[in-house]
Amino acid sequence: MTAGALNVDLEDHQVEFARAVRAFCADASPAMPSSQDPSPQAFPAEFWRALADLGLFAMTTPDGGGGALDLVAAMEALGGSLAPGPLPATFLAVACLPPEMRDAVASADTIATAGERGLYPWAPAADVFIEFDGDDAFLVEPTHTHEVDTIGREPWGRLEVTRIRELENPQQAIAAADLAIAAYLVGVAVEVLGIAAEHAKSRSQFGKPIGRFQAVAHPLARAHCAVLGARDLTRVAAHNTDRGIAAAASPAAARLAATDAALQAAYTGHQVMGALGYTEEAGLARYSRRIRHYASLPPSIDRAREAVAARLAPAAHQHEREVIG
Amino acid sequence: MNPTFTDDELAFRADVRAFLAGQVDRTTMQFFRGRGGAARELYRALGARGWLSLTWPVEHGGRALSETYEYILWDEVAYARAARPDLGPGIVAKTLIAHGTPDQQQRFLPGIARGETGFSLGYSEPDAGSDLRSVRTRAQNAGDAYVVNGEKCWTSDAHNSTYLWLLCRTGAPEDADNALSILIVDLASPGVSINPIQTIDGHRLNSVFLDDVVVPAANRVGPEGGAWRLIREALAVERHLQMLPGRVRRDIEDLAGWFVEQGLYDRPDVRTRMADLAVGLAQVEVDVLATLAELARGGDAVVAAARMKLRGSELVQSVARTAFDLGGPAVATTDTPFELLWRQSFMETIAGGTTEILLGIISRQALGLGMAS
Asked: B201 — contact with chain A (CB < 8 Å)?
């Protein structure tokens, strides 16, 4: 392939980095607590520090040498590993905090959370609090914290806060969060499809593998299309973000697509796995819970939907068609 | 990652747009009205610019450009709702270039390149739709000619075409793999009758009856019994045109524009549904990049193209459904294009590979779920 040829793949160094992240997580990532455990996941301090040492959180800083596509490559790997921690909030914080605070978050000296309407993921472990209100972002301080468990077993905080100052670049921060959430969801969903397809090949009923029944195979094929489409869209949206290109393939569109696709994969995976998928033992539930959880993360997905809808309206009257690619 | 067209490709796109702006009344819906009339006029104009043979080898009068150029051409034509891709320059010409005799290449390629010679595809039969290997139309070898008897159906544009690209049986019924051949049938031959089948979008398909039609052996393409390979290859040369995002974008922009005109675009339910459509569109537009990228590096793009067609064809149905769900009684009138889109878009998930066939391909090739009985 020549350097100029059309392609929608990650660069080799991004594939390598994602592989390294995946390998690291396989050894170090704390497992999600089982559904029988009464307490949510404890903040994985050592794991978090090690991710920072890999350069993960600093790569999108001005001196970090990476961009949105590097972020996406890493988040796909982290999602596939069900890595815990305030990952989207960290990339969001790095995009909008003033330099000194940003560098502390990037090196894991401080832990950032981003929330809205009083709900903040990982708030019990956080030092830096960012509140979204409409299109604005604020640095805030909690005056009261109440811990609450979540479907993804991550501890959130229900907070009362006071505002300290308004933050710059809220749109870039939202874009980073949208891409991070989209890529993580893609990563989890790819795993779900792999688990479900493997089951469909090995589980036999009526004398043949259930994957030979169209009623089983076709929903899996649909989910596969949705997930791989969302993966490519997220990667292209990251590329566009890195180059300052405003296009239909935007971080907001990527988040919407990846959220839908991952939820579709979760429902399909559970249906294909039958009663086994309902059990703690099979492991599928950890993936589907994390998908449902990430699909609900703040800043709310409603903002992404509105951004996409608003963008379409002016395009409608022009018939001066925007260029793909 | 390089999801961008080259400067030359973008310049070509600009040329195509400029050309279409001068040719096409934007209110025309010829895209939905077959390949005769204004569409054939357009093909001739495209042919005059050498745009119907962009990817053909230079020795056959082409420019040896990549599939991306063909995609850009037909995608813009679709966005303008001006026509669907002509069948001759794609499936027919590319098969003739690869497998035709020099005589066939000389007789057929120049007319195709000029946009003058129309071909229709004679594949489906009353008892052979998705399962093409079971076609029954029979061609009896009579030395220097075949005598053909049978019935083809759903034949788009037979009434607008000079020739039929006929899939027929030259061998034993039980021989699925080596019994089928391709013949080029002059539709003006004695024994050919073309009967319209009215469709719900006000257009027509055709039944083509072949009654002792004599076809010169010189019109057989490839070896006798060798059609299956040709058909598979012919599908491959059209993958980048299987679903044109320009058509999807135009449908969605027309609907968004209509909602804005009607003062409905600020409604939360409208915004939510339009956002869903816009995300689907962004996906189709990325799907086509993935397909073109795979073709560019020599892959077959079977799964990527299936993904694109699956999504795009269901999306155009969603556009019409959204118009009816949210637009009130006005959408039922012929003052908007959406009632036509509603009627027409049923065909999109059938023609060119049904949704079920595509899902089977994806199940087997992407997920490894063996479907063989």
From this structure: no
Three-state SS sequence of B300-354 = CCHHHHHHHHHHHHHHHHHHHHHHHHHHCHHHHCCCCCHHHHHHHHHHHHCCCCC
pLDDT, one tens digit per residue, over B94-148 is: 999 999 999 999 999 999 999 999 999 999 999 988 888 889 999 999 999 999 9
Which of B272, B288, B363 is facing A218, going by the closest CB pair?
B363
Taking alpha carbons only, the member of B72, B129, B118, B70 closest to residue B92 is: B118
B286 in reach of chain A (CB within 8 A):
yes
Contact B362/A at CB under 8 A: yes
The question of whether B224 is a catalytic residue gets the answer: no
pLDDT in tens, A115-142: 999 999 999 999 999 999 988 999 999 9
Burial of A248 (0-12, 13-18, 19+ CB in 10 A): buried
Tokens standing for residue B122: 């004679």
Q: Please give the interface size between A and B, counted as residue pairs whose CB atoms are below 8 Å apart.
A: 186
Pairing of strands B145-152, A208-209: unpaired
- Out of A6, A217, A308, whose CB is closest to B3? A6
Task: Indicate the pTM of the whole model.
Answer: 0.95
With CA atoms as reference, report the closest residue to B291 among B50, B75, B133, B110.
Answer: B75
Assess whether the previous peptide bond of B89 is cis (omega < 30° from 0): no
Residue numbers in A near B307 (CB within 8 A)? 225, 228-229
Note whether B100 contacts A: Cβ–Cβ < 8 A. Answer: no
